[in-house]
Amino acid sequence: MSDPLNALVGKKPKRYDGPDSPRSVGWTEPLRVRLADEGNPLPLDCGETIAPVDVECEIYGEMNENRDNVILILHALSGDAHAAGWDAKAEEYSRLWRKTRPGWWDSMVGPGKAFDTRKYCVICSNVLGSCYGTTGPSSIDPATGRPYGLRFPVVTVGDWVRLQERLVTYLGIERLFAVAGGSLGGQQALEWTLVYPGRARLAIILASSARLSDQGLAFNMVGRHAIISDPSFNGGDYYGGPAPDRGLAIARMLGHITYLSEVSMHQKFGRRYRNGNNTPGFHLGIDFEVESYLQHQGEAFVERFDANSYLYLSRAMDYYDAATWGDGDLDKACSRADSKFLLVSFSSDWLYTPEQMKELALALCRNRKPVTYVNISSSYGHDAFLLEVEKLEPLVQRFLEGRR
């Protein structure tokens, strides 16, 4: 659920590895692949099928001769396939925000980094229903010649993983070296181990859980309600006209609150006023620093995300429950897995809590699955999986190298 791009904004000033840095994967270009067509549509959990389906992905590093050094990175709610490096097509694809910053996990993916592209071939693909090059609600519905809008079928984490499996097979990869992701990306990594046991040798799951909490469901509902209630929503058929920016901005602001923690909010803003003299302005507009920050987050988000995609992706997050593989029993579900796991939670994460991750770790342990579980002390809240690089990097490196 976390927003990788904006998480970086809140940390101390960061010096990115430039495209010419030896620690950067350099300039990148997206690859688009058609993975479903009329003759081979993608079956969905909702009972429908969809075709055509195009998927955008990025690939860093080289596959070895046996194609057994591939790590599949799974992104979170508002992420995309651009996990590392600098987008050479940012201007062409009108993704102008990428001109000033690298991919969302650039701190972890690259030469000498946690996911070392000198050793591993790293692939990141965009999920079905998104607005970043993979078929989604803003794509043209071949049946009508117009954007799908809300006629797009409801998709699930399971649908995403089955589409990723098509991509992996298309690339000639029989077994992944690892699957890895944080937040909603972590749930995709978990799903990989359950739907395709043994297809991924290792699984790295960060700031995630087997299911979203009741509180998380509630936050998602309010965000979707804000979008659907926007006067410009027009039943989802707003393409070519005013978009429901106000509703999407509210959803984004609400979501962003859940990515932080009380400590990080206090450290960033406290109760400071914007006027510089630390006195109330006695008006109902933007007066506190935190209000200004959230407003900025909302405004920036609408420039790069589609409201319909937010509806579909957040609903997929709601529906995910790994226990479904065990008829509601998480222990039974985890008996299917045949991977080695690294599970990492963060002490101040109240969206996917350490208790939830521990529940998953125990379910795997009760099935005698090899699990390393670490709870990292952090004040960054849910966004910690994007920010605690110094703590995560050695953990991930040792796990990938078999030195738990």
Structure in words:
- The structure is a single chain.
- The chain is of the alpha/beta class and 404 residues long.
- The protein contains twelve helices and 16 strands.
- The protein has helices at residues 4-10, 157-170, 184-195, 214-228, 245-259, 262-268, 289-302, 307-319, 330-334, 354-366, 384-387, 389-400; strands at 27-28, 31-36, 42-43, 49-50, 53-60, 70-74, 86-87, 109-110, 115-116, 121-125, 140-141, 146-147, 176-182, 200-206, 340-346, 371-376.
- The strands form five sheets. Strands 2-5-10-6-13-14-15-16 form an eight-stranded mixed sheet, with helices on both faces.
- Strand 15 (340-346), helix 10 and strand 16 (371-376) form a beta-alpha-beta unit.
- Helix 2 crosses helix 3, helix 4 (214-228) packs antiparallel against helix 5 (245-259) and helix 5 (245-259) crosses helix 7 (289-302).
- The protein is globular, with a radius of gyration of 20 Å.
- The chain starts with a helix and ends with a helix.
